[in-house]
TrEMBL record:
The keyword Transcription applies. GO terms for molecular function: phosphorelay response regulator activity; transcription cis-regulatory region binding. Residues 126-223 form the OmpR/PhoB-type domain. This is Response regulator transcription factor. Pfam families: Response_reg (PF00072), Trans_reg_C (PF00486). It comes from the Bacteria. Residues 3-116 form the Response regulatory domain. Coiled coil: none annotated.
């Protein structure tokens, strides 16, 4: 079942869209905290976003840009600010469509269905993991933090993936080495240490200091 995230500060409109979309068999949620839009986006992991332009704190163009740094999920702008300049900006920022308010909910749903078919008939879904504002994109082996994107090697990606999947828990060295071995790259404990050290250095370069913590004699964790 496709999930749709509604980023709209008028709760009456947001609830109407959510309730209508659900009658068509989709899951839908709307954002409550407009200072934590990306946290909601990552945790909900939607297949499509409906995004207003005029929002509290930061406008829709800002959030479109932030989403595009970590995901190619389809974005439909919904706004009463439907002059040519805003439509052009929406498209240039990475939007896939623009619907002017007021709109017919059936027209909105038809556009949602069309974009979902176009996108997911041919392209797999993007999976994201988030911790402390750092977003790991598992479909392209990259991590983004504070608007800085870092491409990861195969081993670096696998290490971060298993640690972030077990957020707040200690992951044993054996578990990590087994994950690396499954990628046809057998590593012993010393090689694991070298990989962890190199990864920590790269993470520090984008502001993620002490992201990976060593639990002596046991393993590693992110905190």
């Amino acid at each position: 079942m496709y999930k749709i995230l509604i980023i709209e500060d008028d709760k009456t409109i947001a609830k109407s869209i959510r309730n209508h979309i659900k009658t068509w068999g989709y899951e839908a949620e709307y954002v409550d905290d407009f200072q934590q839009v990306m946290t909601k986006f990552v945790s909900y992991d939607p297949q499509l976003v409906l995004l207003d332009i005029s929002l509290p704190f930061y406008n829709g163009f800002h959030w479109c840009n932030e989403i595009r740094k970590v995901s190619k999920v389809p974005i439909i702008f919904i706004s009463s600010a439907s002059d040519n300049m805003n439509i052009v900006m929406a498209v240039n920022m990475g939007g896939d469509d623009f619907i002017a308010k007021p709109f017919d909910l059936n027209v909105l749903t038809a556009k949602v269905q069309a974009i979902l078919r176009r996108t997911y008939d041919f392209v797999g879904q993007t999976n994201l993991l988030e911790h402390r504002g750092a977003i790991l994109n598992t479909s392209e082996a990259s991590i983004t933090y504070n608007s800085k994107k870092l491409d990861l090697t195969k081993n670096e990606y696998k290490i971060l993936q298993i640690l972030m999947e077990n957020n707040g828990k200690i992951v044993s060295k054996d578990s990590i080495m087994t994950r690396l071995w499954e990628t046809d790259s057998y590593v012993d404990e010393n090689t694991l240490y070298v990989n962890i050290t190199r990864l920590r250095k790269k993470l520090t370069s984008i502001g993620l200091e002490d992201f990976i913590v060593t639990k002596k004699g046991i393993g590693y964790m992110v905190k």
